[in-house]
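Recap quiz, item 2
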Amino acid sequence: MHVKPASWVTGPADAPEPGPPYIYAISSGKGGVGKTSITVNLAYALAGQGSRVLVVDGDLGLANIDVLLGLTVATTISDVLERGQEARVALVQVEPNLAILPAASGVPEMVNLAPQDREVLEELLLALGQGFHYVLIDTAAGIGHSVLWFNALADCSLVVLTPDPTSLTDAYALIKVLCQRQPQPHVMIVVNQVASEQEAQQVYDHLKRVTERFLGVTPLYAGAVPKAPEVIQGVRQQTPFLKSAPGGKATQAVRALAGKLGRQPGDGR
Amino acid sequence: MPVRHTLVGNDLGGIAGMLSCCELPQIECVCPLGHQGCPLVEEVERLQAECRRLAELSHTDPLTGVFNYRHLIVSLEQEMERTRRTELPTALIMIDLDHFKLVNDRYGHTVGDAALRWVCQLWGRNVRRLDTLCRYGGEEFALILPGSRMAAAVQTARRLQKTLAASPLHYEGYEIPLTASFGVDVYRGEMGVGAIELIKRADEFLRLAKVQGRNRCCYRQQRAQSLATEVSAAERAALFPPAGGTYARETG
């Protein structure tokens, strides 16, 4: 994919400033549930609705959003933190109102951010987010320090899981840890790779019952994305399925998801 | 930026030689009038040397050459602050030589002193350059391990324990067996805990090692800390779908 620097972000704003962005942290507990694919396609869907969207690759040591989009990245979050490079230079504009903040891959020391790095990164993200309506942070797999930190920074934790029991357990573990960090975390659930809407609903109901019983927390249902061939193809072709299969079932599902999540800031919360 | 250099004449090499604080930079003195053997320059150089000697004395133990109690507190506070900033844990090992009074009583204090120097030499060779070995007082020592988790600290403590147990002091024809007890604890950035508190915590485990029969290492079992976020058996049972693989609604 041809990439140009995000010039509109650096240049004088011709559109009115959107105010502080609404930040989603997208996590899963378990890896390999399609979290990054959902993040990227959700970002395209939100941008398609006319919102300015910034995607942050929060898997700081093993980034792969750039891989999923076939980007060649020159500057990463790691360069900004380690070498003090200008943060806006790192932004990659992939659509008229969609920018990516890429992370480094294969930089183990970035996996766990030290507190002083977090202070810098928080300031940086909040400053960068100023031009956007939404910031989507694709966090690393697991429940490590950086995952919890990004979730604490976010307005809403979007938890992605599949009907697989191990994914359910790991998503629950994530929610449990989030509950210990803040009393009532704002958690929304996306069920990925489902056979039917009914299955998604069942998985969500089941998880909700357990979190309500043991944690006293009710996560909200955000939506589901079906298991579809275009999803796998999209990953292989390094193209979001929203673009490669605009009429597909997965695309429709993500558009519906964006419709639901896109309403969040206007809820007056 | 403190200047680092190894102090000349220190038989312990890297231990007390690596000073990170209270160190004085060496400034070359030249007589402004160009006099050879200027008495003022000589006096300044003498005072500089004296200053360095006193600075060294202020944080090393003269008998063993390792750091003293004052340096232990300063260095431990510094490492604990680093832990709070970086989240890399700081480990502390408190060590006590077993039945040391018997060595003094049986062989005399000269031999006792030689034993103290001997263990410091032995241990000094078995720790990393960034570890700080201090004489806490009497026959008690403290070892600071920056950026170390419990497992690594316990491994180090056991290594020091075994090394000493296998290396008796040979002194004036005597072969004197020596052993020590070790108590280990790790600081992970808990608020409201200072150097004294951490020493007290590690000391508790040292006392336990003594009570359990000496020549051993005791440390905090860490299991309890992770329990709060662990998915319990009951939660797991509730999470796994009933046989058949469906998430059907629970009955009853």
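DSSP finds twelve helices and nine strands in chain A.
Residues 1-15, 265-269 of chain A have pLDDT under 50 and may be disordered.
End of item.
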